[in-house]
Amino acid sequence: MNIGNVTLASPFVVAPMAGMTDSAFRRLVKRHGGCGLVVTEMVSSEGLVRGIDRTLEYAEYTEEERPVSIQIFGGDPEKMAAAAQVVEGLGADIVDVNMGCPVPKIAKHNAGCSLMREPGHAATVINAMAKAVKIPVTVKMRAGWNDTLRNAPELAQRVQDAGAAAVTIHGRTAEQSYSGSADWDLVSGVAHDLSIPVLGSGDCIEPEQIVERLRCGVSGVLVGRGVLRNPWILAQAADLAAGRTPREVTLRERGEFLLEYIDLLLGEGVNEDEGFRHTAGAQTREARGRERWVINKLRALCAWYSKGIDHGSQLRVRVNSASSIQELHDIVNEFFLVCSITVLPAFSR
Ligand SMILES: Cc1cc2nc3c(=O)[nH]c(=O)nc-3n(C[C@H](O)[C@H](O)[C@H](O)COP(=O)(O)O)c2cc1C
User: Fold this and answer.
1) What is the C-alpha to C-alpha distance for residues 240 and 78, in angstroms, rounded to an integer?
2) Whose CA is nearest to atom 1 of ligand 1?
3) Ligand 1 centroid to 273 CA: how many Å?
4) Which of 77, 79, 160, 217 is the most exposed place for a label (fewest CB within 10 A)?
5) Which atom of ligand 1 is nearest to the CA of 204?
6) What single DSSP character describes residue 333?
7) Residue of the CA atom closest to atom 30 of ligand 1
8) pLDDT tens digit string along 92-112?
9) DSSP per residue, 178-215
10) Ligand 1 atom 22: the closest Cα is on which residue?
11) Using a 6 Å CB cutoff, which residues line ligand 1?
């Protein structure tokens, strides 16, 4: 599949997830295979243009993650165009625009999903960006703002005309947030109508569902919460799509994933080779506060990762009470690695 001049080796994509899909997580998922594209957490266009360190950090990526899409949010056409240029300057393959975030803090600034309420303005934003950069500009939207404004079909057409190279639709409205289920009929209808690639997002928790959704006529499938629960899900979907038996994941492997994630987080920005990381800010990070940050990251991931595992709630509670990296190691070792010859029922075949 191609998005503009960018070729994706697989149609399965790690969805953007604020607070979750950091570079370390994306690298690990990518290493397990099946992943055609990763999307960063959403990054503020304002922060990018003003060169705010924290914002620039969200936009960092490493070479092994390619192709990489950096998702930005904002509502001002000029600023979004300037932010797209920063993204291009960082060497990213794609710049994606968030038109799906329902959080009032974002939506009230005429950004995120509130752009869906002003399709003309949304198209102006995309047009300004497409003129400002050579890399593909893509859009991720919802089905609409609410039930009376399910306008993804019209908006998708408008952003296509304005120069978007691909569109992703999460088939829920902003008002729905995560309730109900994603409307994949709407997504496949848009895929049928547009000439650019249309990707779908929503409710793929098992690898079979990903492959099934691909058959609805979309060019690709973004997987969000399913990847947080099972980082092998894209590899398993790729196996299924190729007619192979999906790989099994043992408890030991699941434990090792967490240990590797801890290691990568601890090492972010520390003694890295020249060229390893694409960054517009400082190359090295302060060690101060690092341990607390890693613990919080593990807590956030384990809230999802523990779902569907026997005694997962115990893992969650224990990780939530951990106060050091050593404690995290002990918990993971005890939960996953001691006597872990079992294949996890939820992910076994
Ligand atoms: C914790 C979390 C954070 C998210 N952050 C973003 C984001 O920054 N940008 C975005 O476009 N979508 C974001 N989403 C939406 C997902 O990309 C995806 O479209 C949605 O979760 C539906 O897919 P799923 O059922 O596979 O999770 C987020 C979802 C979750 C669960």
Assistant:
1) 44
2) 17
3) 32
4) 217
5) 26
6) I
7) 17
8) 999 999 999 999 888 777 899
9) TSS---HHHHHHHHHH-SS-EEEES---SHHHHHHHHT
10) 202
11) 15-20, 41-42, 71, 98, 100-101, 140, 170, 201-204, 222-226
Catalytic residue among 101, 113, 204, 302: 101
CA of 328 to the centre of ligand 1 (A): 26
Measuring from atom 13 of ligand 1, which residue has the nearest CA? 17
Q: What is the pLDDT of residues 156-210, one digit of tens each?
A: 999 999 999 999 999 999 999 999 999 999 999 999 999 999 999 999 999 999 9
Q: Which residues fall within 8 angstroms of residue 276, CB to CB, at 6 or more apart?
A: 62, 63
> What is the DSSP secondary-structure string of 43-93?
EEHHHHHHT-HHHHHHT-EEGGG-SEEEEEE-S-HHHHHHHHHHHHHTT-S
The SS3 assignment for 240 reads: helix
CB 260 within 8 A of CB 297: no
Query: Can you tell me which residue has the tokens 């434990």?
Result: 255
* Cβ pair 193, 153 in contact under 8 A: yes
The contacts of residue 109 (CB under 8 Å, 6+ apart) are 74, 75
Query: Torsion angle of alpha carbons 253, 255, 257, 259, nearest 10°?
Result: -140
Ligand 1: which atom is nearest the Cα of residue 41?
A: 8
Q: Which two tokens stand for residue 343?
A: 């294949």
Tell me how far the alpha carbon of residue 180 lies from the centroid of ligand 1, in angstroms.
Answer: 15
Q: What is the mean pLDDT of residues 290-295?
A: 94
Rounded Cα distance between 42 and 313, Å, is: 29
Tokens read off for 33: 């295979």
Q: Which amino acid is at 259?
A: L
β-pairing, 277-278 with 61-62? antiparallel
Q: Pairing state of beta strands 61-62 and 68-73?
A: unpaired
How is residue 97 written in tokens? 């625009």
Active site residue 101: yes
Identity (one letter) of the amino acid at 252?
R
